Amino acid sequence: MSGQFTAHAKSILLGEHSVVYGYDALCVPITGLRLTCSIQEDADGLTLDTTGYRGLFAQAPRTYAGIEFLVRSLVEDPGRAEQIRLIYRSDIPMSRGLGSSAASALATINCLDEYYGLGLTHEEIVDWGNRAEDIIHGKASGLDLQTVMSDEPIIYNKKTGFRKVASHLGAWLVISDTGTIGSTGEAVARVRELVRSDDRYDGYLARLGDIAAQGQKAWIDRDAPRLGRLFDEAHTYLADFGLATPIITRQVAAARRAGALGSKLSGSGLGGVVISLAGSQEQAHHIAHALESVSAGVWTEEI
């Protein structure tokens, strides 16, 4: 028996935080950052092999709770043979808002499906993936999982669900790692408290929602300069919520000085990554070079 599956990352372009309040979010697959899960027989029993931990599943840190849930549910509880080692190799930095946990869940499910011949349907894979994501993030929206499963951008609204955008922008995205873990819980709580205490912030959310809607049109129209300007405007509002750390601010400024069409934090903020838009591969490489000295890592992706 054998099993192997590779999943890719994702990045939210527009709509972070406002999506929680009923507005749209636009998210794109990042196919250049990947995570691969493979299975080997292992006489020691259920073992885990990652860059962060190697050993028995029973002793794995809480970070791997989603994977542990899947292995317990799909292997242990049904009484399937447990002499396996799950091996993970990943380019996706963890806890940066790039979908590492969703990619891990998707790769694990498909790898176990292949190895044991489970015959899971698409709907069952989505269900298991969302259940694993809930363990890591609380009640997850499912946006990360849908995007790491897709080769096309995803628009999400909590009322209407998911829909794909069957087009490409014809531009490049530069992703720069702040080197710090994003704090989703803290960021969401901060936004909620500001909205509750000051009507001005409710207006900010409405504007962020409008920006996300305009961003969808800019994408469909293949208007990268327009989308870049929307990046900049969205970042201003997100920074007003106090979500831009000093390193985020430095990276945004460096990208703009290097000629980015627009630059903003991506995801919850308070860490994570910054995304910058470039009109060409050459410009993307120039921006990436300018960000190297202030980033823990920089990647470029054609979108």
Report on this model:
The chain is α+β, with helices and mostly antiparallel strands. The protein folds into two domains: 3-164, Ribosomal Protein S5, domain 2, CATH 3.30.230; 172-302, Alpha-Beta Plaits (2-Layer Sandwich). Helix content is 42%, strand content 24%. The chain contains nine helices and eleven strands. Strands 1, 2, 3, 4, 5, 6 and 7 form a seven-stranded mixed beta sheet that branches. A four-stranded antiparallel beta sheet has the order 9-10-8-11. β3 (47-49) and β4 form a beta hairpin.
Key phrases:
alpha+beta, 24% strand, seven-stranded mixed β-sheet, Alpha-Beta Plaits, 2 domains, 9 helices, 303 residues, Ribosomal Protein S5, domain 2, globular, four-stranded antiparallel β-sheet
Shape: globular
Q: Assess the beta-strand content as a share of residues.
A: 15-25%
Total of helices: 9
User: What is the CATH-assigned architecture of the largest domain?
Assistant: 2-Layer Sandwich
Largest sheet: number of strands, sense, barrel closure: 7 strands, mixed
SSE pattern: EEEEHEHHHEEEHHHHEEHE
- CATH class membership of the largest domain: Alpha Beta
Number of domains: 2
Q: Share of helix among residues?
A: 40-55%
